[in-house]
Specification:
The structure holds two protein chains of two kinds.
Chain A lengths: L19 H9 L4 H12 L4 H9 L14 H9 L17 E5 L16 E2 L2 E5 L10 E8 L10 E4 L9 E4 L4 E4 L3 E7 L2 H15 L8 H13 L1 H11 L8 E6 L16 E8 L3 E8 L2 E8 L9 E4 L2 E2 L3 E4 L2 E8 L6 E8 L2 E11 L4
Parallel strand pairs in A: 9-18
Antiparallel strand pairs in A: 1-3, 1-8, 3-4, 4-6, 4-7, 5-6, 10-11, 11-12, 12-16, 13-14, 13-17, 15-16, 17-18
Chain B lengths: L11 H11 L5 H23 L7 H14 L2 H7 L1 E2 L2 H20 L4 H17 L2 H6 L2 E3 L13 H9 L21 H14 L3 E3 H11 L11 H13 L5 H12 L3 H12 L4 H8 L3 H19 L8 H21 L1
Antiparallel strand pairs in B: 2-3
Classes of the chains: A alpha+beta, B mainly alpha.
């Protein structure tokens, strides 16, 4: 079944692929050495199935006599139809459930361009921060994908008819990440409240660590999706990992929680994650689970075990296995948690020193 | 009322597509013309052979692309990605149409595609490279001096009818719908056909001939994941090299002296140890060591000349070609 899974023709996964023109130039020879080497690598080391297949379909041909006239019938048809109206005035403030395109030239907190990519993907806002579309506001978003055949319950959420974009989309719950709100581009619509509920619920299930079984083709696709969305977090990570210590500080709001006597099991809405570090291999987050504040380490693919070292407020702490690929340590009970917590340590080759300031969530 | 972001000179087409999807007035002719031009360009590069006689003519392909764009809302997806500028946008759209072409031809028989690759592989060695590049025909090297005058398909078919087609290899578990044929058997067949028609034929006619001779058009496998997998895995093992690599390998061999050829033949092609090489070359072990060191220096110099920075994989692929040429030299001597 998985072998029949197709990527969408417009999938961003083809961003690094070459056009038939490039491949034809490789096939016929005479390319500059650098470009030839890049295409060689893509075809033979990355073994891109798309480009390999296109390569074999290519035939060097003299300029063919193709009809010069444009499709008049298409012009007539388009002039005759009433297009789907998607013009939307930008909202006054950012809200959860809004869909936006993103800038292919992300800027840092000072509005200075720091990267440039060929094409940028749309996202749905899951945490709007202060609600301002500014470079100072750090929001959390879930990237959208057109590759609906890669839907995996527990990791992604498929939206069909309810999609405000007019076509089905896949919400990459696994790929949630922080970004600067100023790097949003154009507003594209709002998810229905019922869909927003489904997103929140899917996200909470995912954050609980219930990782579904996935095949290698899905994992390869997922890995690529994560790489493709990295540009969204560059500006946030730049701030986080800059040399000045102050930039490694986080302010995390504490949520009010239900007393154990009031409810039986733990509700999905009682789990709030806040990502501290995110790399290709792992994610380190602070998670409020009702009355507990936890430090959670989750590996993306390969289990690398507990951190080489981990200190919380100067004391060595060990993490416990919570689920496959997931480790946790208790930071404390919400009611008696110190206002400031310092976390330092080393995960894989990554050394960190983080300061967390807990505040009471004023919105509640 | 226009869509939200300001129009920049290098984002004219991006804005056009966004306006089209925002439901505001836009230049319909420009939109259709831009897409038509890209679709035709893709068909020109990919459709000549693959589509030419397998039922995918230009009109069908254009209708398919427009149907996917407008009816399946592909254009909205294009409008919901953001691009740095129009150049990147056009490049992206071209790749999308190439993917649509790929979608269409994936329904062709796997046997056709496997055979197409084999013809390409086999004739590349036997034919004049420049003809392949400039006039899209296969011309045998022995006919290089003759004027380019490819035979008609009818003549090719007539010639082929008198030549026995290569017999497939009978292997256990082989799917009878697309049995493998040895490259050397296919080469012998194609060489005989080409010689019989005056040494040259167009790529398209040659593939049309293969399709009828091997009854490939009749085999139409839409979803055969097992077969696709088997072929796919084999495909992935094949290293795809361009003529530049072949030229480099030839240049490399041209720069080798006899000692280097002997060392390469024994140590790489035959995988001999130093001692075995010394015995084969009738030299002392020390001499073999010294010659091998000299050869390594030559390799290092060749691959680090100028600004050319090559990956280990690319060097290794070129050295595989070098081995092939060295074996040919040794076997000819």
């Amino acid at each position: 079944m998985n072998d029949e899974r197709q990527k969408d023709p417009a999938s961003l996964q083809h961003i690094e692929c070459f056009t038939a023109e490039d491949l034809l130039a490789y096939k016929t020879g005479g390319l500059p050495a650098k470009k030839r080497s890049i295409i060689f690598h893509h075809l033979n080391v990355d073994k891109c199935p798309r480009c390999r297949e296109i390569y074999y379909l290519l035939e060097p041909a003299p300029q063919a006599d193709l009809p010069p006239k444009i499709s008049e019938k298409m012009v007539q048809r388009l002039k005759g139809i009433r297009p789907l109206r998607r013009w939307l005035s930008p909202p006054t403030s950012l809200e959860i459930g809004q869909l936006w395109t993103t800038s292919p030239e992300p800027k840092d907190a000072r509005g200075k361009p720091i990267a440039s990519i060929e094409a940028a993907l749309p996202v749905v806002i899951i945490s709007p921060g202060s609600g301002e579309k500014s470079y100072e506001n750090v929001i959390r978003v879930i990237p959208l994908s057109f590759d609906t055949q890669y839907h995996l319950e527990g990791e992604t959420l498929l939206i069909h008819e309810e999609s405000p974009l007019g076509y089905p989309v896949l919400l990459e719950i696994f790929n949630e990440r922080p970004m600067l709100a100023g790097n949003l581009d154009e507003y594209r619509g709002m998810l229905e409240p019922s869909v927003v509920k489904r997103v929140i619920s899917a996200r909470e299930r995912f954050l609980e660590g219930n990782i579904p079984q996935a095949d290698t083709s899905y994992l390869a696709w997922k890995q690529k999706e994560m790489e493709l969305a990295n540009y969204l977090s560059y500006p946030v990570n730049m701030e986080l990992f800059s040399e000045e210590k102050i930039h490694n500080a986080f302010e995390i709001p504490l949520r009010q929680y239900k007393k154990a006597a009031e409810v039986k099991g733990i509700g999905l809405d009682e789990i709030s994650p806040h990502v501290l570090l995110e790399t290709q291999q792992f994610c380190l987050a602070v998670v409020q689970k009702r009355d507990q504040m936890l430090l959670r380490l989750s590996y993306n693919e390969e289990d690398q075990g507990t951190p080489a070292s981990l200190m919380i407020n100067g004391e060595t702490v060990s993490m416990k296995t919570e689920a496959p690929l997931v480790y946790e340590a208790l930071l404390g009970q919400v009611d008696i948690l110190p206002t400031d917590v310092e976390i330092s340590g080393k995960i894989l080759d990554f050394e960190f020193d983080l300061f967390i300031h807990f505040t009471m969530d004023q919105k509640q | 009322m226009k869509a939200q972001s300001g129009k920049k000179p290098d984002k004219h087409l991006i804005q056009l597509i966004r306006d089209r999807c925002a439901g505001v007035p836009y230049d319909v002719e420009l939109y259709v013309n831009t897409m038509d031009t890209i679709i035709k360009g893709v068909y020109r590069d990919l459709g000549q052979v693959a589509g030419g006689f397998m039922g995918l003519d230009l009109d069908t392909f254009m209708d398919y692309c427009w149907s996917r764009l407008e009816d399946d809302k592909l254009v909205y997806k294009l409008a919901d990605l953001s691009y740095k500028n129009d150049t990147h946008f056009l490049r992206y759209v071209r790749k999308v149409f190439e993917n649509l072409f790929r979608e269409k031809v994936s329904r062709f028989s796997p046997g056709f595609r496997a055979r197409q690759k084999q013809v390409d592989r086999v004739l590349r060695v036997l034919c004049v490279p420049s003809c392949r590049r400039f006039c899209s025909c296969w011309r045998l090297k022995e006919f290089a001096g003759k004027p380019c005058s490819p035979a008609s398909l009818a003549r090719l078919s007539q010639a082929a009818s008198t030549i026995p087609i290569p017999r497939p290899i009978a292997t256990k578990g082989t799917d009878t719908r697309y049995p493998p044929i040895r490259d050397r058997d296919m080469a012998r067949f194609l060489l005989s056909v080409l010689r019989a028609v005056g040494g040259m034929a167009t790529h398209q006619d040659m593939l049309a001939l293969i399709t009828t001779q091997f009854n490939l058009a009749a085999i139409h496998v839409e979803q055969d994941s097992e077969g696709e997998d088997r072929l796919g895995a084999k495909d992935l093992d094949e290293v795809i090299l361009g003529p530049d690599h072949e030229a480099m390998a030839k240049e490399f061999v041209k720069g080798m002296n006899q000692d280097m050829i002997d060392i390469h033949y024994c140590r790489v092609a035959k995988d001999y140890t130093i001692a075995q090489t010394a015995k084969a070359m009738n030299k002392s072990i020390g001499t073999v060591h010294n010659r091998e060191r000299a050869y390594r220096r030559y390799i290092a110099q060749y691959f680090t000349r100028g600004d050319e920075l090559m990956s280990t994989e690319e060097m290794s692929a070129i050295m595989t070609l070098v081995t092939k040429y060295v074996i040919a030299i040794k076997e000819a001597s």
